[in-house]
Amino acid sequence: MSESIARRDFVASGVFALGALASGDSFQTSPPLLKAAINGGRQVGSHPALPTAPEACAGDAVAVARAGAGAVHVHVRNAAGDQSIEPTDIARVLTAMRTAAPGTPIGVSTQFGIVGEAARRHALVEAWSVLPDFASVNFDEEGSVALARLLIERGVGVEAGLPNADAARVCAEAGLVPRCLRLMMEPRGADVAAAVRAADEMETVLDDAGGGRPRLLHGFRTIAWPLIEEAARRGHQTRAGLEDTFELTDGGPARDNEQIVGEAVRLILDVRSAR
Known about the structure:
This protein is α/β, with parallel strands linked by helices and 275 residues long. It has one domain (3-274): TIM Barrel. 46% of the residues lie in helices and 12% in strands. The chain has 10 helices and 8 strands. It has helices spanning 3-22, 54-67, 87-100, 112-115, 118-126, 144-153, 165-173, 192-209, 224-234, 257-274; strands at 34-37, 71-74, 106-109, 134-138, 157-162, 182-185, 215-217, 238-240. Helix 2 crosses helix 3 (87-100) and helix 7 packs parallel to helix 8. The protein starts with a helix and ends with a helix. Residues 1-8 and 10-29 have low confidence and may be disordered.
């Protein structure tokens, strides 16, 4: 199979898969979804190509979809460049991204530190007038269970952010594992072996909880690329982008999100072809 055909199939199956999962179908994509995480909580200007303004996020949504991403995760910013989940900011960014990249599912962060108070975070999400396709909820944070239930009730897919087995247990004990769009395992730290062990521990908890929901494995900084490779070996979904790393697999600086996603596609295809 030529690389161009493989990349075409990767893009096609990735985009199709998320739409099916959002509608409730329970299956693992082949190849699994690659999501682009385009900015995160990174400081404005920390990378020359870091998108924060709505127009820049919209441009990157187009670029990463072209490179092979089947969905985009964005940390919304306000006019000052600070992270925000205010309804007007959410609406402005989602509208810009959807106009530029129609059909590409867009998800947002609800990270606790954006607001710093569980009740206020819940109220702001409840007030959203324009809804994302999915939202990440970190289950090691105060108010996560109630927030996840609110999002599900509003028809928003929930990505369960799971940094460790304890967070996975919170999600499982709340009965939310089978109701999430996906279960996002994101071990912390810089040690690859420790991250893999943490992923194994989370897998055990999730296996016991059942539900058959897709799993996504990724890491930050020095473990970003090793965990993309590990996700490909396990047949899990994964993600790539400037939120997770500023570097390519060879340690060189990444130009932008499009280049990182393209590199991730190549790595995943290499792993799959070796299986």
